[in-house]
Design brief:
Helices cover 28% and strands 22% of the residues. The chain has eleven helices and 17 strands. The strands form three sheets. It has a seven-stranded antiparallel sheet with strand order 11-17-16-15-14-13-12. The protein is globular, with a radius of gyration of 26 Å. It starts with 30 loop residues before the first strand and ends in a 19-residue tail after the last helix.
């Protein structure tokens, strides 16, 4: 997988984070911002990366995705409120200035014939480097000239075209920092408790003896020799690629090889976009087939439930850490007496050693309400093509159910008056009414799942009494 070592001096590659060996610059790295399948080539899409508002669009002439800072150089109007015009250019909504993919201004409608104002460097939109790898659109927020020499952080098994791998993917906008997210997912010891009854079980808790085997400015590698579930799943290797990627790699006889991959893309202080990828290489074909047949939207509903297991308390945890001095004071703020927290400590040491705060000097906003923390629609559904379509289909199906009930109820009096009613017909219509009403109600409950998570996590629900 991606090396953790700094590129050799003779290499054309440049390290992520810039050239200063004592500092890691978050501007100098690639970040995933969307799964390509969730982007619409006919529409403008917005995203905020490291506090900078961007507009993403498809340039037909170059057959590539483009990303601009979301400001027109003329009067700073947001370009995302504009359109893709008939020439395939990004057109500002304010005065119609139009831009090609590398940011050059091609048209200023207000200038006289023969005018050259559009050729000025000041007329250009600010374009950022983009690329697509493994189904993800990546953006490099720093100097575009440096981007092409900086390695894009990817996972090697996702380039395996043997057909033996299958991958589940999800994403969500998370109401806490990228570093808080990474700290959480690097910590395997929380799974039996936090995710009890979703992907964990309290019965599986035990000592977690972690070891860091390599560390430098580009990240670290570690190992858990015994592995999860008291060793029943085998050895687990962990990798952190600075500043925004980590994965756990586990091989067992029971499940084959499994990776848990997380990208943490910083949006602004206190918010990030999580991309979670779960590549599986099963020893048999049946689990692989089951995953391939599972609708993407249905998988996302389940994965949102898992993410919400720790959504609320992590939102508060990072505020408490900030009050106690932040990463610089983590050793005093946290009490870390066991090796289970070794990767957490290593991440915070990396932040301090390389001055690697993503938003230095900024403070977190006031805490959000539980309702906002569990909002699924704005954090996921509206950005996900699969979930948006599924939601529309469910809403249409509920409308059809209402129409069927209305028609049946309107027909009943007519059948009685006409003398056509009989026992079998009555039972049939009653059954149809009950089935349709049940379908309407069930779809209604499913519809809610696209909008809001449940405030009581599965781990805190009453345990079923054993008979």
């Amino acid at each position: 997988m991606t090396t953790l070592l700094e590129p050799p001096l003779s290499s054309d590659l440049l390290p992520a984070g810039g050239n200063d060996p004592d500092r890691f610059d978050w501007q100098m790295a690639w970040y995933p911002v969307f799964y390509v399948e969730d982007l619409d080539k006919t529409k403008l899409t917005t995203f905020t990366l490291l506090g900078q508002n961007l507009v993403i669009w498809w340039e037909q002439a170059a057959s590539t995705w483009r990303a601009f800072v979301d400001q027109c150089p003329h009067r700073l109007a947001p370009l995302s409120e504009g359109r893709l015009n008939e020439q395939g250019l990004l057109e500002c909504p304010y005065h119609g200035w139009a831009f090609s993919g590398e940011g050059a201004c091609e048209t200023i409608p207000q200038q006289a014939d023969g005018g050259q104002a559009h050729t000025s460097q000041r007329a250009c939109a600010k374009a950022l480097a983009t690329c697509v790898h493994q189904g993800l659109l990546f953006i490099f927020p720093g100097n575009p000239e440096r981007a092409e020499k900086t390695t894009v952080p990817t996972i090697d098994v996702l380039d395996d075209d043997s057909g033996e791998w299958v991958c589940l993917n999800t994403f969500r906008d998370i109401p806490y920092d990228a570093l808080t997210l990474l700290e959480n997912v690097l910590d395997s010891s929380h799974i039996p408790y936090t995710h009890h009854r979703t992907v964990g079980n309290r019965a599986n808790v035990g000592p977690v003896e972690l070891e860091v085997v390599q560390a430098d400015r580009q990240g670290f590698k570690g190992v858990w020799e015994e592995g999860p579930r008291r060793g029943t799943l085998g050895r687990q290797e962990t990798t952190f690629i600075a500043p925004n990627l980590m994965w756990h790699d586990l091989t067992s006889k029971q499940f084959g090889r499994t990776l848990t991959v997380v990208y943490a893309t910083p949006i602004r202080k206190g918010y990030c976009r999580l991309f979670a990828r779960f590549p599986f290489k099963f020893p048999s074909k049946f689990p692989r087939l089951a995953i391939k047949l599972t609708p993407r939207w249905y998988s996302h509903l389940g994965q949102n439930r898992v993410l919400e297991d720790d959504q609320i308390f992590l939102h508060w945890q990072e505020r408490y850490l900030e009050q106690k001095g932040g990463s610089e004071c983590f050793n005093q703020a946290f009490y870390l007496p066991t090796k289970a927290d070794l990767f957490v400590s290593q991440l915070r040491q990396w932040v301090n050693r390389y001055q690697a705060e993503s938003f230095p000097g900024q403070s977190l906003s006031p805490a959000l309400s539980t309702e906002l923390l569990l909002d699924r629609y704005h954090a996921h559904t509206q950005h996900c093509a699969s979930c948006r379509q599924a939601l529309k289909t469910i809403q249409r199906a509920r409308q059809v159910a209402v129409l069927i009930v209305t028609i049946v109820l309107s027909l009943l009096p007519l059948l009685v008056l006409s003398g056509l009613s009989n026992l079998f017909l009555g039972l049939g219509l009653s059954s149809l009414l009950a089935l349709t009403a049940g379908l309407w109600f069930g779809l209604g409950q499913l519809e809610k799942s696209f909008y809001q998570g449940k405030p009581i996590p599965p781990r805190n629900q009453p345990e079923k009494k054993r008979r």
